[in-house]
């Protein structure tokens, strides 16, 4: 599995049919192992392919993903926040995505929500444009 996952990690950075096919194959093979699936979610979420926020949104509806499961959340949403390209997208889409998720999570599991909102804590390190687009879950400036 280690070799398979390493190969998958390199393919996950290249958008296209091959990537999609290999991700589907890996899922089919490991779908009954929840720990491996969390790695599978994380790997896709961390990808720096352009516009990956849309792929992550789609994964929120994947049958193996449950927003009520903190490990799923840490893997998918936390993984997305580790993508400097997509979480810190110039258009603010990564910040908006996280803000929307935190609002949902706060109703389900406030502790998990507070863990996720900590991804906004380094907003002062961002350039001026990103500081202006960094908003908390209620639209406030990121001052955490």
UniProtKB/TrEMBL annotation:
Keywords, in A-Z order: Aminopeptidase, Hydrolase, Protease
Superkingdom of source: Eukaryota
Domain Peptidase M1 alanyl aminopeptidase C-terminal, first and last residues per copy: 1-134
Listed GO MF terms: aminopeptidase activity; zinc ion binding
Protein name: Aminopeptidase N-like protein
Organism (species): Medicago truncatula (Barrel medic)
């Amino acid at each position: 599995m280690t070799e398979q996952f390493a190969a998958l990690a390199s393919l996950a950075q290249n958008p296209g049919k091959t990537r999609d096919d290999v991700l589907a194959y890996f899922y089919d093979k490991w779908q009954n192992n929840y720990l491996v699936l969390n790695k599978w979610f994380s790997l896709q979420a961390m990808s720096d392919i352009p516009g990956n926020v849309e792929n992550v949104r789609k994964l929120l509806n994947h049958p193996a993903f449950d927003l009520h499961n903190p490990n799923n959340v840490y893997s998918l949403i936390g993984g997305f926040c580790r993508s400097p390209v997509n979480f810190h997208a110039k258009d603010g889409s990564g910040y908006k995505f996280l803000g929307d998720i935190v609002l949902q999570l706060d109703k389900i599991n406030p502790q998990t929500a507070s863990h996720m909102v900590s991804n906004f804590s380094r907003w002062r390190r961002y350039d001026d444009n990103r500081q202006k687009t960094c908003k908390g879950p209620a639209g406030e400036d990121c001052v955490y």
